[in-house]
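[Archive record]
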Amino acid sequence: LEKAIGAGAEFEGNAQFVKAEKSRDGVTVTTARGEIKARYLVGADGVFSRVRQSVFGRGLVTYAPAVEALVSVSPDKAARIGDRVLFDVGGMPRGYGWIFPKKDHLNVGVFSIYPTRSIKTDLARFMNWYGILDSPSYVKHLGFAIPLNNTRHEFERDNVLLLGDAAGFAESFYGEGIYFALKSSMVAAEAFASAFDRPSEHAYSRLVKEKLQHDLTYSELNARMFFPIQKFGFYRMVRNMHVNYYFAELIAGHVGHKECFYKTIFTSPYWLFSKRFPALAAGAM
């Protein structure tokens, strides 16, 4: 924000979005502080985007639930996980669980792209599996809707662009959205910069389909390949170092979902019939 202001942007705080309407020169935006006229409106207002609902209507983005708990544990238990992160691909039916160390607590949660009414129970069951989560001094539960899919592949209309969660840019395997939110902002900047601040019609959408959409599509293919038959996925994929490597590199950002999918498929004769390697382990939890 400071860099944007330093580059000449004007910041209007407490200007809650109300509606947007196409005007002759661009967009007229009605806010709690009055109207703002602009050539373009960028909707980067999150999962339940008001910009999206105002301009694109309802039903553009589909969601999957995720729940997490912020858990405070004793210092000795926190030290047992240290600075590692845990991904448990059996953490919930047709999904996974995680434990992330934070500054003063552990972030624990479960996620699946498949509909479920028992996700809170799944989280409780997952937490009971790990001794470091026993007898916590504090637990706070949070629920989230993960925007997984832009049903119409529509990312702009009438000089209005959607970015990040507002556009449905979370991936399906891990439910992660920060990378694609940042990537979509870079794509939008490229669309403007390449056309001297006046991108041609649907330039942003073309770049989204070229630079984001394929990876998001393959993230769903990876999830639907892996999670429906978890026992097979665990014993023949997670416990196999060859496949484990690619999915770990996916977390680190060193490979994309498309590359991960094809390398898993093309090397299937190797990992389907190879010896089961023990899972990567970092010590008892």
About this structure: The longest strand covers residues 138-150. The mean pLDDT is 88. The two ends are 40 Å apart (CA to CA). DSSP finds eleven helices and eleven strands in the chain.
